[in-house]
Amino acid sequence: MRPSRRSSGSATIQDVAREAGVSAMTVSRVVNDVRSVRETTRQRVLEAVQRLNYSPNTAARSLAAGEAAQLGLLYSNPSAAYLSLFLVGALEGARRAGCHIVLEACGSELDGDQAQAAERLADTEVQGVVLPPPLSESPAVLDAIIKSGVPFVTVGGSRTVPGGLKARIDDFAAAVAMTNYLLDFGHRRIGFIRGNLNQQVSHERYEGFTHALRTRGIDVSEMAIAQGDFTYRSGLAAAEELLSSNPPPTAIFASNDDMGAAAVNVAHRRGLLVPRDLSVVGFDDTAPATTVWPELTTIRQPVSAIASAALDLLLARIRAERGGYDLPAGERILDYELVVRESAGPAPRASR
């Protein structure tokens, strides 16, 4: 059984801060014996610690002393390809930084289950938590982590969480680039498969798509839009819906590679040649992009590098807090790349 942060007392660092009338950073400085705190403030914090029976995270204090860190990673992702790349990046980043990763799975979409999973992870001797999508945008998870007082970093989407760190790409700009790529081929009827509406990146990719269309003077209302949830199965249903529209699109832009690969499958079933009759593009550059035929033109999101960057941000924040100096909330935006393969080409002449 893993040790619990609350096993010797239920108080958190935020509870102590409220009791003493100071910031959580000040409490951290006091319990780590940083000498920059005024003596009157130090005494007030120590008295609050005693009254609340607060027990500082011993693993966190080990980090301040230069010993190995232990970070938690809470995961649940409908795309196994994305999750695999993320875990590889996180584990490699941990190896390079000399820290350990505690993995906690949460496959439920229920708020209560997600909150409990987050609390279980926060209750272990971890100094920080990494939250990849979609749990990085779960209100239940974020609320539980924030209440625990454990530093955290979220991945994906531009929405900033108070007190949190973030690692991502510019999904909006990447979607603009991909849409312009299709428009430059002469496509004017482009079907779009949206991702899970609970994830900010789904909205940003769709907004990038529509922004590019409007900028080129194209009526967005004439585009066929179908809803997916980032899974291959949802891509099958969405592609069938798009290709059943009248007139059907000459190109499909799927919000991730799983759904893009599904769209290629549906095209084959309908006797369409990709890209002669239908162009298909994806997003992420995960394994499905190169296991489908023809291989997908896609946006390369450096998933493993993002995971590693998230760890770096989190470790820098933890060391700053334990060392007693301020570090403002940080965000790291990594570069994306439009990867050209064989699945996209000129629009059929008759449709131009």
For this structure, the quaternary state is single chain
Structural class computed from helices and strand pairing: alpha/beta
CATH topology of the largest domain: Rossmann fold
- CATH architecture designation of the largest domain: 3-Layer(aba) Sandwich
CATH level-1 class of the largest domain = Alpha Beta
Taking pLDDT < 50 over at least 5 consecutive residues as the criterion, the unreliable ranges are 1-9, 58-67
What is the number of strand segments? 12
Q: Quick check: average pLDDT? A: 86
- How many domains in all? 3
Using only C-alpha atoms, the radius of gyration works out to 24 Å
What is the helix tally?
A: 13
Describe this structure as you would to a colleague.
By secondary structure, the chain is of the alpha/beta class. The chain folds into 3 domains: 1-56, 434 Repressor (Amino-terminal Domain); 65-169 and 306-333, Rossmann fold; 171-301 and 338-351, Rossmann fold, CATH 3.40.50. It is 45% helix and 14% strand. It is built from 13 helices and 12 strands. Helix 6 (111-123) runs parallel beside helix 7 (139-148) and helix 8 runs parallel beside helix 9 (200-215).
Describe the secondary structure blueprint for this structure.
Layout: H1 13-20, H2 24-31, H3 39-52, H4 58-64, E1 70-75, H5 80-97, E2 100-105, H6 111-123, E3 128-131, H7 139-148, E4 152-155, E5 165-168, H8 171-184, E6 190-194, H9 200-215, E7 225-227, H10 232-243, E8 251-254, H11 257-269, E9 279-281, H12 288-291, E10 298-300, H13 303-323, E11 331-333, E12 337-339
